[in-house]
Amino acid sequence: MLRYGKAIFMVTAAAVVAMFLYVSTGLVRDLSAQERQRMEIWADATREIVASFDSDKAVDIDFLLRIIESNTTIPVLLTDDAGTILQYRNFDLPQPVDSLNPGALSPANEAFLQSKLHALANTPNVIDIAISPASVQHLYYEDSTLLKRLSFYPYVVIAVMLAFIVVVYVAMLSSKRAEQNKVWVGLSKETAHQLGTPISSLMAWMELLPDMGVDTATVAEMNKDVNRLSTIASRFSKIGSVPQMVPADLNDVVGSAATYMATRISSRVRLTFTPAPGAIPVELCAPLFEWVMENLIKNAVDAMEGRGTIDVTTGTEGRTAFVEVTDSGKGIPRKNFKRVFNPGYTTKKRGWGLGLTLARRIIDQYHMGSIFVKSSTPGIGTTFRITLPLR
Known about the structure:
Blueprint: H1 2-53, H2 61-69, E1 76-79, E2 85-89, H3 107-120, E3 126-132, E4 135-141, H4 145-208, H5 216-238, E5 246-249, H6 250-262, E6 269-274, E7 281-284, H7 286-303, E8 308-317, E9 320-327, H8 355-366, E10 370-377, E11 381-389
Parallel strand pairs: 6-8
Antiparallel strand pairs: 1-2, 1-4, 3-4, 5-7, 8-9, 9-11, 10-11
Helix pairs in contact: 1-2, 1-4, 4-5, 6-7, 7-8
């Protein structure tokens, strides 16, 4: 349902943007056509004024001059066939015009107008004015400032709309993620609470078992498992709260987790740990980090279906420490490299698909590191990598 909601939101947003662009483009096109009509009227007025000097035809010169003078927004250039500038209007010249001799142009203004003429000659904004069969003038015009602004305005608004859509989309994802976090936190704390009572009862029974004649070695092994349950409950209780980070040697923490798991997996699985030479100083919460390691190792065992090899290694690269867990399992398709960390993703018949999700939360949010699939080849194996900042 959420996937369809995202699709509907994106399609609606795209439709709104497309509609706005269509309407805005239409307005720009209409305004451009109106300016063209104004320039054609301006050209007709110029033709009539010139023609009045060569004939006895009665024309209203004042009216024609008012048409020409009324153009105060559209920059225009009037030239003859030889390209000589006869008249110009509404250009912001680089130098002031001499009020006593406005027809005389300074070299800078002359160069400026010539550059404008050259640019306008390569545009459709030109109107030919047939003064006589042997004389043709050319009217070049630029888009008005209003038209230029309106031409850019749709793209500015679209950029703002797209930014707004991105903000809304990110807010939706953040809200969804925050809701998921509340679910995980609530589930974890409730699990820890529910485990607390039977664990306390088991601890009490453990104290009574030696008096009941139960073998000491058996009691010791049972006590390890009870303590393990207590550790698991403690881990669940830490989800949602800020765990205490303490300085530690990454080799020691990873080695402890690997040693624990080595005695609790199938004898057909060979688990090896290769620590980096020397200590690797990091800050971490050992119970939670060991939980991540155990999840990765358990997943590796499941991927190999109880037979194969698991290699755990540690090392450093620059200011970063890393842990790699490599198995000889069935591998992960590249398209699922990121999906394996999504809640509910699992390839097992029995399982909730939460192990890697919690592992990523522990590493990303609490340890300021990262966890990802470094490489995987179907039928050969997979390597997960955890990175942490060095202390």
